[in-house]
Design brief:
This protein is of the alpha+beta class. It has a domain of about 60 residues. It is about 30% helix and about 25% strand. The protein has three helices and four strands. Strands 2-1-4-3 form a four-stranded mixed beta sheet, with helices on one face.
């Protein structure tokens, strides 16, 4: 280990520490000046995304649709194990989608997702299914 014998001298180690600290300070100062002088141009979304023409809105029709009337609401959990679901009214296994279940149960419906989480074979989903009528 004769190559590094000069590191055994305390005076030499202090000099190297001083020079290294000065070099680190110079690098930090240089980086600060560089980021101040060389500023990134602002990203203009118009230059990135091609502009397309927007189709005019159709004229409003005379008939005003009636609002949907909610008949019943179900809290439905879809997943692999029913025991892994929080409080719910109905359970749907992985073999059926929420839309299929709601179509069969309600006919006309809306689905509002409440929560999703991983687990089982198909993940879990808790949703509020509202059976509606026009």
């Amino acid at each position: 280990m004769l190559r590094f014998a000069w590191l055994n001298d305390k005076n030499t180690r202090e000099k190297i520490s001083f020079v290294a600290a000065g070099f680190a300070a110079l690098v930090a100062a240089g980086w600060t000046v560089f980021t101040f002088v060389v500023k990134e141009p602002p990203h203009d979304i118009k230059s990135v995304v091609p502009q397309t023409e927007v189709a005019p809105k159709p004229a409003p029709t005379q008939s005003i649709p009636r609002p949907e009337k909610v008949i019943t609401t179900h809290i439905v959990c879809r997943g692999y194990f029913q025991a892994s679901c929080p409080a719910h009214d109905e359970f749907v296994g992985c073999d059926k989608s929420l839309s299929d279940w709601a179509q069969q149960k309600c006919g006309t419906y809306t689905i509002k997702a409440v929560k999703r989480w991983d687990g089982g074979l198909c993940s879990y989903q808790l949703a509020e299914v509202s059976c509606t009528s026009n």
